[in-house]
Amino acid sequence: MNYFGTNGIQGIFGSTINSGTAFLLGNSLSLVGGDCPIVVVASDTRPSSKELMQGLVCGIYQGGGNVINLGILPTNAVGHFVRKFGGDYGVMVTAPTSEISHNGCVVFDRYGVELCHSKQVEISKKMHLLATEIPPKSKVFEPRFYDIDNIYAEDLVRLVQCKFHGKKVVLHCGNGAGAKVAQKAFALAGAQVVPFAVKQHNATENFLQNNDFLQATVGSIGFALDVNCQSVQVVENGTPLSQNKVLFAIAKYLLQQGNLPNNRLCAGHFVNNGLCRSLNKIGIKVCKCKHGLGNLFMMMVKHGLTFGGQMGCYVFGNHATYSEGILSALVLAQISQQVGSIANYAKGCVESPSTFQTIASEPKFCRDDKLQALQKRIAVAFPNCKVVLCNNSPSTVSAYTEGQNNLEAMQMVVATLSQPNV
Description:
Largest sheet: 5 strands, mixed
CATH class of the largest domain: Alpha Beta
Distance between the termini: 28 Å
CATH architecture of the largest domain: 3-Layer(aba) Sandwich
Number of helices: 14
CATH superfamily of the largest domain: Alpha-D-Glucose-1,6-Bisphosphate, subunit A, domain 3
Number of domains: 3
Strand order of the largest sheet: 1-5-4-2-3
Helix content: 25-40%
Oligomer: single chain
Structural class: alpha/beta
Number of strands: 17
């Protein structure tokens, strides 16, 4: 049994994942990590993250390990500080979706890379063997690493080497994991930071409908970061830019700067075909991989690539092993400063109409064989439509449809997975 999905262990808190799951993970990491392993941990700002962190830390200590608690930080920070501090593992309490009901744990190895499949299986087996153990109910008060926000902000600015000379930047962080670091990083880089604060933890999920935020970006550029700071969405002069145009702009800029080895980049298999054709026209080839940021980075390493992206998440392999929304925003602000309008810079990107959705379903219908069968059925019904289905976790599926009938194809996917017997 493998507890891991495309981005760590994830599920609906209180249903498919709870503090007991986190305890088993922490305990297993300590037991397979050698003599007194060091585990670097952090979390996002979801209400359930505290309880999961409690179980995780308790499991680590019970298994004989030690903890370095970074507190609330972006996901990539865990991989970054595992390498910097010489830890054995890193765990970020978060989930790839911004839905507050979901949560989970993303696990990194000592190199700051998301665990490979074989290691996931090893950890899962250990968790399964320990599943009869009852996690202690006593609280563990774990001190947080002092001044870590400033340290991480300084590291990010140093990596990008950017100076903005008073450039106005609007930041919509939704009180997520990157809220403090994002403001500090842009301020260190010399930007005039306009923080757009809201109380909802997942407010960036619907930021396109937030007229106040859009209006605040008129005459400037704005960035919206999700709750775990893995993805970034861009608004320029009050107008949102699509994820495809953003990826196109970054790739074009890296190519012109001579920083795109072999004129290639890596993208998840949800990548838009129109984007691929547009990149092809300017001499950039796209190497496709399975969905998941861990898969994306490993494919980049395999082919000697330094840039990859999927669904608003961008990995700069020279600087990070995982997607970092703040790092991406710094790079995009740098591009904006040098080329002017990103929208005009990316006008060569012609997208195909597409739809993406995460769907909850019964675990037995989220298996690979079931999804492949459904994918074939939809391909027969809509032969000119690209359909990609991927199980994120035992009970959720990511669905991508592209083409003239993408909406109808998505409706068929949702209807089938919501009512599996139909």
